[in-house]
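Hi there, hope your week has been kind to you so far. Thanks so much in advance, here it is.
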Amino acid sequence: MYVEVRGQKTYAATGGKEFDNSLPCVMFVHGSGLDHRSWALQTRWFAYNGYSVLAPDLPGHSLSAGEPLESIEEMGAWLADFIRAANVSRVHAVGHSQGFLDVLELAQQAPELLKSITGVGTAGAIPVNPALIDAAKNSAGDAAEMLLMWGFGPDAQYGISAVPGMQPIAIGRQIMARNPLYEDLVACANYENGSAVAKSIEVPSQLILARKDRLTPIKAGMAFAEELNARVTIIERYGHMLPIEAPRQTLQKLRELISTLEQAA
């Protein structure tokens, strides 16, 4: 569906069902250079199991209009405006990589909009190799190739896919090569507010981390989980692109937290 945010047309996937804001809402925020397609399995399950789903393309990404935002702080503020534009009171916010940094800023700037937060393949800060930023400035396609080589675990590099007939690296390449990867990477590299934000977060939180993650190493994720006082799940054998390369395992851990919270409510 399309939502007007700050006067711009914004696309949000709804999991294949018509959006119903009377249902508990789960919002999925994509990582650098990605879009709503990285959450295909997870959004569909929640949409068909009693939830409403919002998976927005950030401004300038894929089906959303506007210019790409230049900082994580701006992205957090934009997410708050997006939630209000969709006429939703509170959401369970799920973010992959950079998307979780956006969620942290949302929690800092508009905590009243959140029921829980979940980070997937992430940490409180995501340093970016300067060579990758330089490559992205010159060619999103070239930088995407570098990022995908580092971002997927060994099984995906050998062509093994969790979804028959779909090649995860090819999906990532198709999305990233056409999106503003440079702006996203610079925003990640410049973000230093994660630890300060963690101290103020009061909603339930969890991190889903990958043992073979070479972009946000598991050590950094575990350290941030302690700061956040979050529950932690480690998915073995997979890399940074968990929503795409380990979609079922990622979904299972999301279901456990969010379903438990909704049942208690």
Notes: The mean pLDDT is 92. Residues 128 and 189 are 5 Å apart (CA to CA). The chain has one domain: 2-264.
